[in-house]
Design a protein that fits this description.
Layout: E1 27-33, E2 46-52, E3 82-89, E4 98-104, E5 110-117, E6 122-131, E7 137-143, E8 156-162, E9 169-172, E10 191-197, E11 207-216, E12 219-229, E13 235-243, E14 248-255, E15 270-275, E16 278-280, E17 283-288, E18 307-313, E19 323-330, E20 335-343, E21 349-357, E22 362-369, E23 383-385, E24 389-390, E25 395-398, H1 407-416
Parallel strand pairs: 3-9, 10-17, 18-25
Antiparallel strand pairs: 1-2, 3-6, 4-5, 4-7, 7-8, 10-13, 11-12, 11-14, 14-15, 16-17, 18-21, 19-20, 19-22, 22-23, 22-24
Amino acid sequence: MVFQVGEGGSTDFSKTLEGALFEGGNFSFHYFIDADTNGVCAGTDHTGIREITGVTGDVTITLSAGDPSDARGCQAFAGLPLNLRLTGSAPESWVGADLAWVLEDAEGVAIAGNVEPVEAVTLDLLLAGILELDANYGFSYFVDVNANGICDDGDHAASFVIPGVTGHVTVDRANETADLAACGDFWWMPGGLTITGAGFESYEGEIVLLSVVETFREETRVLGITEATVTGGAFEVPLADAIIAGASYQVAWLIDGDVDGACATAPTDVGGIADVVDYVGADASVFLSPAAEPTDPICAWFPGMGFDVTANATGLSAFAGMYFEAFLYDVASATLTDVEYGSIAGDGFSVTFASAGSLGSSVQVAWFIDADDSLWCDNGDPSGFSEAVEVAGATTVDLGLHQGHDAAACSEMNAYWGM
């Protein structure tokens, strides 16, 4: 707990730490008063320890200004987070503008950042608990004077070096040098993306699914999926804060022609993909048209629109009533992606991985029967992998069960649960 002595105009205080103790326990209560206001417990501060033994109910600790200081109390506050403060005067033209800031570690990696409005001509931006003792940082900020959402020639930017933190840090505008090179520190600020489609008259009234795909630092992922309705052969979808500088983007589109909830091949479903290339300031736009493009490659960008994969097992009457687990395994990524489980009823079991099979992908099913009732795959439990099958629609996998033990399969399945 951290609080300010003198809150409310009185140097008396009473604070409660609810539920902090338990009956019969022994505790040490450490405290320090930050007399030099630097956030670090050290020689000039008042500190102490109170021992609490054999708790039998609520405990009250009374502190007095006349209590002797005990430097051992500082031991509990070695890792206390420290504050960073930006202060100084600002021109009237800044009031109401956005101020963006970023904190970087010693390697130049952004570890925190935000955008705050400038509310007055006197700056006092407190970033509480953002620094660590002895660490080195870089701190940059810019004021978006021209209100275009990016750091550019019309704005004010500056940066500070913060070496070897020894306590709370204040950086003041009086000690800065304006430098637009600091704009490079704000690549992470998101910009908008407008998706426009035209020439879709053949699909009037249809719903178009739109998937935004980002590639950043060699990692590609789906940021999100939205939709639009074709009206007058066109549609437009504005997305706020969707992109960042330094990444590349594509937008995949799909019309689920047979309305089965799965991404399939033409002619039932149609779709395509386009690069985002038209950057304007911090924002970007992409134009889509229904030109003939293969649908298969885009299905991966619509997760949740795969086909059902059903795994069937028979010939298991000897294991009736026993617990089993079955996992869907994606061959391309060599990962288990989904799990179903239950008890064997009669001669076997059948489980369905709903919408889990991406068109054109190759899958297997890993399985085990918990013969020793341990709830995980071990000790010779019947187990294994099915043969690989390609997903070309709703898919059925025959497990071809045997009563042998596959240690490699068990290792994969146990790892899925973190064991």
